[in-house]
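2024-03-11 09:14:02 DEBUG pipeline.ingest accepted 1 chain
2024-03-11 09:14:02 DEBUG pipeline.ingest length=414
2024-03-11 09:14:03 DEBUG pipeline.predict start
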Amino acid sequence: MKKVLLVIAFSLSLVSFGQNYVHQVLVLNEGYYDYQTGIQGVPVTVGSFNPSTQTYQEVNTINGMRFSSDLVIDGAVYYIAADSKILKYDLNTHAQLAEVNCPGVRNLGVYQGKLVATRGEYLTTYNSYLHVYDANTLSLIAAIDTVVGPKWAAQNVVLDGAKAYIAVNNGYEWGNEKGIIGVLDLNTLTYGNEIDLGPDGKNPDNLVKYGNFLYTVNNKDWSGSSISKVAFDGSVNTTTNLAAATGCGTSSLRNDQIVYQISMQSDLNAFDLNVMNNIGPVVGHQTNYYELAQEPVSGNFYCTETDYLTYGKVNIFDANNQEIAEFNAGVAPGTVVFDVRSSANLNEISEDLKVFPNPCKDQLTFNLSGVKRLIDMQGKTLFVSEDYTMDVSGLSPGIYGLDCQGVVVKIVKQ
């Protein structure tokens, strides 16, 4: 899968070229709520991590919400599902733009001005588990009731064109878990064509899209776990069991695999979607993670950990599962989302930045200090320098990019 589009002017002169890059990584920290005392020990927060400067800062605090469950980016804004509210923020300033009450909100999806929200709550019955809002104003467009819509609590949302695929799991009613994928047409706002995942596909905890298929990671009745593969029209529907002892703790799509952990375990396992079978544990990982997410430009893998009470941490691994960075976040970092932009839209600074020699052999020299990243053609960071020089003697000959404040300059290594 091609993760980066590079537009390069191949000449011997120093030129800049546009590429996709990660402007920031948003981390939704769930905080800590004491259900015994009803006291919010640590509030829900939003953090922003800058991959270029390797710095993290808290940009928003959401008070009065027991927890948070989802964050999605759409253009220049992002939306958060937090306990009983949906909130909308500016992606650049992080200023709040709107909010709406939505008790039991769980996951979100956005399509052409429509915001889809699933709902579910412990020991609570709703007359609608699926809402559609105006993405601009957050006014309610439709509440798909249980007569024509999902009859039980719903969770994950995957969009494919104008279709929203909804994981219906009834996960809050133990002993009555469901395994259903429903389809909402976002043009007509009609719901139907439910796909039953069968007895081994109950309680889907995660729903992802890969190629022409949907995949669910299922917790069953918490006595085991499985992965289901479903065609968009339901013509393919197969399930492979993972473990018999307990449910799945966390999972994520990573290239052509689903990586997952069994609840309370520290091994990270890989499931090959091409052959629908386990391919063994992933080396370099022996931590009980809370959230997993692959960064779409470089392919780096973000893994969070927490004690759910006092701390949260994010570990970043490269494609070879070598840890390349880490940073402290808020308590229970449960959602990691990547703000991907194109450097073609940024102001050029190449006239101010001088890099020599270029072509180079052993060392690059700059006339400016500040963070500079040397990247390969896939956008992967190879070296970072805040000084006036960078040792490139170990690089193979070829074309590289020097990323300085979002502008990428072509470097030729001889």
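2024-03-11 09:14:41 DEBUG pipeline.report Residues 21-343 form a domain with the Methylamine Dehydrogenase; Chain H fold (CATH 2.130.10.10).
2024-03-11 09:14:41 DEBUG pipeline.predict end
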